[in-house]
Specification:
Blueprint lengths: L1 E7 L3 E8 L4 E9 L7 E6 L2 E6 L5 H12 L15 E6 L10 E2 L2 H9 L8 H14 L5 E5 L9 H4 L5 H7 L8 H15 L7 E7 L3 E7 L2 E5 L21 H9 L4 H10 L2 H6 L5 H9 L3 H24 L5 E5 H6 L1 H8 L11 H6 L5 E2 L8 E4 L4 H16 L5
Parallel strand pairs: 1-6, 6-8, 9-12, 12-14
Antiparallel strand pairs: 1-2, 2-3, 3-4, 4-5, 7-8, 9-10, 10-11, 13-14
Helix pairs in contact: 1-3, 6-15, 10-11, 11-13
């Protein structure tokens, strides 16, 4: 069974065609600058890379280009579109309605539209991608996996804010959490590598990239996560401030005369690692400046690690222990310096870092604690596309009559 996974952004489409028998991609790629002059399609046919430069005005034309490449006589990996058993779409926000992958219907699309106020930058292009794919593959089953779905198992004490309850009733203001597909995948994969059932483990997953979030997963269920009503809450990130005294917003409005749009830009795009370091939002640049003795780069690194350390401690307390800590995403997978800073001083928790193993686990899976460590820490490269494909496959099999 081949599953096509699509991740539609405002001006881009990431895609993978995954052979579920081997659990590996037949083809993958990224179409960038949709609707902008200079569109670029990067396409991997197995391990062979191809690059095409051709203006792509709409997502409809973008998905059309992608599926034609997949079936091309020379560059294709399947004979025709009938070889695609289903399409799995990544959708950022599903609100409270969806706690898992669902088959796409008119009702589901309407629900995604209802969540646009909660994810105005993400849900609209997600819908555009879905509708474009449905036009090209009208008889192919389609599913969507929500970034927020995995965290719908959080209890009320974790997801409610201490605001008047009427605001929750009216506007559904609550913690939703994000990166759920990644947290789910790496927790499951981490348990597999540990050789223990996920439903017996207390796991803390650290998805660390330009956007970062931490999740507490008890018995395979998300019980808390650092991102909240929006992806702005939580740990310090590339350009996002993370946790903040809300009175600071009022102070800036009063003392600086800043309008809401300027404050939004400040907190989401000018803060975090970029704002602290005054160097870059890219951790590779920060690491370089840190080695050169740049004080603010060092401070940015220390704050980044300290905030994550606090969340790990809090979630260990909330779950009454932790068995496994998993690092993933760009920084989590390729940041041995950051991992070392985060785990330093956690001997009380039972964490004993193996420095050599930590350095060796650069961009690849590996345990980074000693055999004597009571808590295992490991690196697990995330694979959100495979997680989406697996959940889509389960949806397809559920649709088939018994016995097929």
């Amino acid at each position: 069974m081949n599953i096509l996974v699509l991740n539609s952004g405002s001006s881009s489409i990431k895609f993978q065609l995954i052979d579920m028998t081997r659990r590996s991609p037949l083809a993958r790629g990224l179409l960038e600058r949709i609707g902008i002059p200079g569109s670029v399609l990067t396409y991997y046919q197995g391990d062979t890379k191809h690059r095409f430069e051709e203006d792509t005005p709409t997502h409809q034309e973008g998905i059309d280009r992608i599926v034609h490449l997949l079936t091309d006589d020379k560059l294709g990996v399947i004979h025709d579109l009938a070889d695609i058993a289903a399409v799995g779409h990544r959708v950022v926000h599903g609100g409270e309605k969806y706690s898992g992958t669902v088959r796409i219907t008119a009702e589901v699309i309407a629900a995604i539209r209802e969540c646009i106020p909660l994810a105005p930058l993400h849900n609209p292009p997600n819908i555009v991608g879905i509708e474009a794919a449905m036009k090209i593959l009208p008889t192919t089953p389609m599913a969507c996996t929500f970034d927020t779905a995995f965290h719908q198992t959080m209890p009320e004490r974790a997801y409610l804010y201490a605001l008047p309850y009427s605001l929750y009733r009216k506007h559904k203001i609550r913690r939703y959490g994000f990166h759920g597909t990644s947290h789910h995948y790496v927790a499951r994969e981490g348990a597999r590598r540990l050789g223990r059932p996920l439903d017996e483990l207390k796991v803390i997953t650290c998805h660390l990239g330009n956007g970062s979030s931490i999740a507490a997963i008890d018995g395979g269920r998300s019980v808390d996560t650092s991102m909240g009503f929006t992806p702005l809450e939580g740990v310090c990130m590339g350009t996002r401030c993370g946790d903040l005294d809300p009175a600071i917003v009022l102070f800036l409005q009063r003392e600086e005369g800043m309008p809401a749009a300027d404050i939004d830009a400040l907190l989401n795009r000018q803060s975090g690692i970029l704002g602290l370091s005054e160097v870059s939002s890219d951790m590779r640049d920060i690491e370089q400046q840190f080695k050169l003795g740049n004080r603010q780069a060092r401070l940015a690194l220390e704050i980044f690690a300290y905030r994550i350390k606090k969340y790990i401690g809090a979630y260990a307390a909330a779950m009454n222990g932790v068995d496994l800590i998993v690092f993933t995403a760009g920084i989590g997978e390729r940041g041995p310096q950051e991992r070392e800073m985060i785990l330093a001083g956690m001997e009380y928790l039972g964490v004993q870092l193996d420095s050599a193993a930590n350095q060796a686990a650069f961009g690849k899976a590996g345990v980074i604690t000693t055999p004597a460590s009571r808590v295992t820490a490991m690196v697990v490269p995330t694979n959100e596309e495979l997680q989406i494909a697996e959940e889509t496959r389960e949806m397809v099999l559920a649709l088939q009559p018994s016995g097929e």
